[in-house]
Amino acid sequence: MPIIYRKYEPPHIDPDVTTGKDHAPGPPDARADIAERDLTAIRRLISQDLSEPYGIYVYRYFIYQWPHLCFLALDDGDSGTGSSYSVNEQATTSIEDKAHADTQTQKDNLVGVVVCKLASHRGVKQRGYIAMLAVATAYRGRGIATKLVRMAIDRMIEDGADEIVLETEVDNESAIRLYEKMGFIRSKRMHRYYMNASDAFRLVLPVKVESTIRYCVLADEFDVGPRSVAD
Ligand SMILES: CC(C)(COP(=O)(O)OP(=O)(O)OC[C@H]1O[C@@H](n2cnc3c(N)ncnc32)[C@H](O)[C@@H]1OP(=O)(O)O)[C@@H](O)C(=O)NCCC(=O)NCCS
After folding, report:
1. What gap in Å lies between CA 127 and CA 20, rounded to an integer?
2. CB neighbours (10 Å) of residue 1?
3. In angstroms, what is the span from residue 144 Cα to ligand 1's centroid?
4. How many Å lie between the centroid of ligand 1 and the Cα of residue 135?
5. Which residues line ligand 1 (CB under 6 A)?
6. DSSP state letter for 106
7. CA nearest to 14, candidates 62, 69, 64
8. The CATH number of the domain where 31 resides is what?
């Protein structure tokens, strides 16, 4: 089962869709319709394991504004596992639809996704944020998440990120191990962060020197190695 990795390629989206204005009856054109179908596939994969489901507006917020920071893993073969999710699975009719479908390759099945953003943090630094990450159950343990996160990190660094952060539930061992293997450190524990009342760790990957120094100083000041915050 060969896996293809690539950036999400959205169709052109009407700006009104991103703001949610006048959105009640549904997306205004066919391209937005395709974009919504892509989001549905991504959302279905991610929501499998979430302790709290995100609304569609959360997906629109991230993926419409930072499509270049959304990376997909697609099973290129006839997996037959029944555990992947088609991106652009429905038949398309218009020329624009057809062009988009050609780039997305309808046969591909979505088996992994990472969704990120990059924005100014308090006007002093560029902070990359990994909002969501998921790999379909049958495809786990093969390095797919590592590859997707690597692609996202590389792109955020290329775009000027000073640091990259995320939150994860304190008992999500697989995610914590994955990120710590990639150099992330625990910067704080957030009490009852999730709706299910569980705590979260904020994990940080300092990229620029200033950011690295800051997190080293913090760890030193409180006399805790980043990992021991969890103890
Ligand atoms: C976390 C998740 C994305 C990992 O995906 P994956 O493709 O299996 O991860 P990888 O194969 O790249 O694994 C990388 C490292 O993560 C750690 N890891 C992954 N799965 C693990 C598990 N079940 N138990 C312990 N460590 C695990 C390991 O250190 C692994 O490296 P190794 O295989 O060399 O030991 C996947 O389990 C998932 O989708 N979970 C549900 C959603 C989720 O928790 N997302 C993260 C929210 S912050």
Report:
1. 25
2. 15
3. 9
4. 8
5. 49, 133-135, 140-146, 168, 172-175, 177-178, 181
6. T
7. 64
8. 3.40.630
Based on the fold, state whether residues 124 and 175 are members of the same structural domain. Answer: no
Nearest CA to ligand 1 atom 22: 174
Task: Clarify whether residues 123 and 166 are in a common domain.
Answer: no
List strand residue ranges (DSSP E) for 8-78, in order. 70-75
pLDDT digits (tens, 9 = 90+) for 112-161: 999 999 999 999 999 999 999 999 999 999 999 999 999 999 999 999 99
Q: Are residues 91 and 173 in the same domain?
A: no
Among the ranges 21-35, 58-72, 209-223, which has the highest mean pLDDT value? Answer: 58-72
- Cα 143 to ligand 1 centroid, rounded to whole Å: 8
- Domain annotation covers residue 109: yes
The domain of 89 spans 1-135
Which one, of 207, 86, 217, lies nearest residue 153 by Cα? 207
220 and 107 in a single domain? The answer is no
**Span 36-82, pLDDT tens digits:** 889 999 999 999 988 778 899 999 999 999 999 999 999 987 544 44
CATH number of the CATH domain containing 222: 3.40.630.30
CB 206 within 8 A of CB 214: yes
For residues 40 and 106, membership in a common domain is answered with yes
Closest atom of ligand 1 to 135 CA is 39
Domains held by the chain: number: 2
Q: What is the pLDDT of residue 94?
A: 43
| Predicted model pTM | 0.82
Residue nearest to atom 31 of ligand 1 (CA): 178
